[in-house]
From TrEMBL, chain A:
It is found in: Cytoplasm; Nucleus. The keyword Acetylation applies. It is an enzyme of class 2 (transferase). It catalyses: S-ubiquitinyl-[E2 ubiquitin-conjugating enzyme]-L-cysteine + [acceptor protein]-L-lysine = [E2 ubiquitin-conjugating enzyme]-L-cysteine + N(6)-ubiquitinyl-[acceptor protein]-L-lysine; S-[NEDD8-protein]-yl-[E2 NEDD8-conjugating enzyme]-L-cysteine + [cullin]-L-lysine = [E2 NEDD8-conjugating enzyme]-L-cysteine + N(6)-[NEDD8-protein]-yl-[cullin]-L-lysine. Its EC number is 2.3.2.27, 2.3.2.32. Transmembrane segments: none annotated. GO terms for cellular component: Cul5-RING ubiquitin ligase complex; cytosol; nucleus. The keyword Transcription does not apply. Keywords: Acetylation, Cytoplasm, Metal-binding, Nucleus, Transferase, Ubl conjugation pathway, Zinc, Zinc-finger. Pathway: Protein modification; protein ubiquitination. This is RING-box protein 2.
From TrEMBL, chain B:
This is Cullin-2. It comes from the Eukaryota. The keyword Cytoplasm does not apply. SUPFAM superfamilies: Cullin homology domain, Cullin repeat-like, Winged helix' DNA-binding domain. One of its GO terms (molecular function) is ubiquitin protein ligase binding. It is found in: Nucleus. Its main location: nucleus. Belongs to the cullin family. One of its GO terms (biological process) is ubiquitin-dependent protein catabolic process. Keywords: Acetylation, Isopeptide bond, Nucleus, Phosphoprotein, Ubl conjugation, Ubl conjugation pathway.
Amino acid sequence: MADENDNDRIDDNQKPEKMFTLKKWNAVAMWSWDVECDTCAICRVQVMDACLRCQAESKKDSYGKQDCVVVWGECNHSFHYCCMSLWVKQNNRCPLCQQEWSIQRMGK
Amino acid sequence: MSLKPRQVDFNATWKAIKETIRGVITLDHVPRTVWNDRFSDVYSLCVAYPEPLADRLYAETRQYLIDHVAQLLIKVQQDGEQSLVKNYFLYWTQYSAGSRYLHSLYLYLNQQHIRTQRMSDAEIIYGSIDPNVAIQGDQMEIGELALQVWQTNMISPLGHRLVKLLLEAIDLDRAGLPPKIPIEAVKGTILSFVEVQAYRKKSQLQLYVELFEMPFLNASGEHFKKDAAILLQERNVSLYMEKVKAKIDEELFRARQFLYSSSLPKVADRCQQHMIAEHLQFLYSECQNMVKFEQRKDLSNMYDLLKTVPNALVSLVDTVFDHIKNQGLAAIHNLQGDSVHINFVENLLTVYKKYRALINEVFKSDQNFMGALDKACNSVINHRPNDGRSPCRSPELLAKYCDTLLKKSSKGICESEVDEKLSESIIIFKYIDDKDVFQKFYSRSLAKRLIHQQTQSMDAEEAMINRLKQACGYEFTSKLHRMFTDMSVSADLNNKFQTFLNNDKIELGINFGIYVLQAGAWPLGQAVVTPFALPQQLEKSVQMFESFYHNKFNGRKLTWLHHLCQAELKLGYLRKPYVVTVQTFQMAILLLFEKVDTLSCKEIKETLQLNSEQFKRHAVSLVDSKLLLADTEDIDEFETNLRLNLDYSNKRTKFRITAAVQKETPHEVEQTMNSVEEDRKMYLQAAIVRIMKSRKVLKHNLLIQEVYSQSKVSFAPSVQLIKKCIESLIDKQYIERTPHSSEEYSYVA
């Protein structure tokens, strides 16, 4: 039998059966917001978690809220969207760099 | 007959009335016509012209009754002491019935003449006037008058002699001897003391209490004392209790037989005082042993007896508490082997259920004993061995127990059984002080079950999370919920990815599935992402998925957790085709042997860019499984060469190489404990800042108390830890000591 195996190895082209065939791969990956600073400067909560307000409200909810997304400004600073939309009502500048606030992209 | 007032001859009319009264009061036959005439006569006297004769009628009637009772008094006594009670009862029955009829005959007088001049009910009840005085000066309704006459002219002279005879009769009954006086005569006589004053608005029972009840209770008290003394001579607690219980029942029965109902509690009270309260020490003397040997009958008796005496239960409750605690500690002492966690939880539950049943049955679910059970369970479950030096392992063991139940491998247990066991584990959970530690261990094992697809049933998982939520609230389980949600989101994602591949006609060459986990929710933080050169077979999958994912979501980055990925490899070089499930790193190592039979560790490590720790762990697991052979005893990452085992064989054609992945290493336990410690510090610091922010200035002890009460939902912090946190907040200048006292802090805005 060992000989047969050796033959397999010598003559790969004749027998298409490979030594190892990868059948299936169950991958695991972690997602996080692509941000420079992982804390929201407005509510001081990690951007991966829902902002303080959402945490307080979702207590009634049985599942964790997915809706509290992140927003990036042109200045590349990022905050919870909920926190920022309250902030701009007071002052339309980025709380970190004082530049005029305009949204570059939003997390989804 | 006219209703008009007219002149009436009082003497003639009274003579007729008097004759009828005699008939009425002795229950003789009175024809209806005569009754009707007398009724009118009473009326005509009351409204007589020129002046009403009601007062005179009243006075004459009163005198008649006094005379009548005086005659009865003689009759009652005529047969001597022997028949005194019997005769009294006989004439009382007759007289009391007769006086009721008489009352009806005088209806007009009662209603029109007497009731109008009497005080209102409110005056009698709320006025401070002594009812005796008030009534004597006034005229009374005829029925009441009759009773009052009886009281003053019959009971007053005879009372004490009657009571003496009555007490003797009751003593005879106690001794079990045949009664000398008929029982109904005894009872009737006793009740007559009540009935004779029943018309009163206030202190109706005064005569009964003073004349009869007090002497009776005193005599009974003496009797109980003697009885107790006799029973005590046997020096047998359980017998004593039996007898006392029987005695109390017997006395209550007797009281019901002879006495007015208001006396029942008083009798029981006397009995309890003399037979129980005065001998508590004697009862307690056997308490220890009864609890120790769980003598249900005795304990039940003990409970019934002690319950009646205020505060007497405390000692029994304490003994029960100690006993349950000792039993609990014994049940979890020195557990060893692989199933420590199962033994731990199930032994505790056995103890808990046993004593809960005992308390339900023996102590009638008394709150005091339920409290003792709770306290005992609490101290057993949070017991720290070695005089508190070792940490408490309950949270870890309980989490492991849940893991065992929820894992696929749990053999031969049906779903409903698992469900029941899980709900029971909540009983233990509620007693745990360090719930946060449990949460850490639980979330770790949940993560493993979910990622490695070892969950028996998603329904069971969800039910368990809901139970924990019920016990501890939303925050406690929010991360567990998020992990759970990630699973369903991932399933959805996989479907969409497949559709995407099909639409674009892309072949990955492998069966690809993925879990995308939300950072922060999963207890994987500590596991650092290690460098790894991806085998070329996987590159396409990774690329395709990343582009698909970034297309679908905005602003997210993906980190591949290779140490958690699993692959199925088909081995085509052996006698039988085998399918083996391995970790990505193990897979990568094996794939290198596609073209060569032997590789040095150094080569493998460099090709895959694995760090030493990871490489060694997985190489060892492959050598242990005999898929690879090593040419040295220990695997050295520089010297050892690895060779493919071409003679490998296994009874099963499908198997898994698990060793390196799933075993909870001591290292992991330690890591978990450390992360708990960190979380607690953060939690405590946050609590301190919150409290100080609202209070501004606070004394040290008060601050400690507040912090303690806020955090006890999820764990019981040590004072030392709180102090440490205060120190570190002072360093960080969140708070400071106030200048005039070192025991006081103020908030720094």
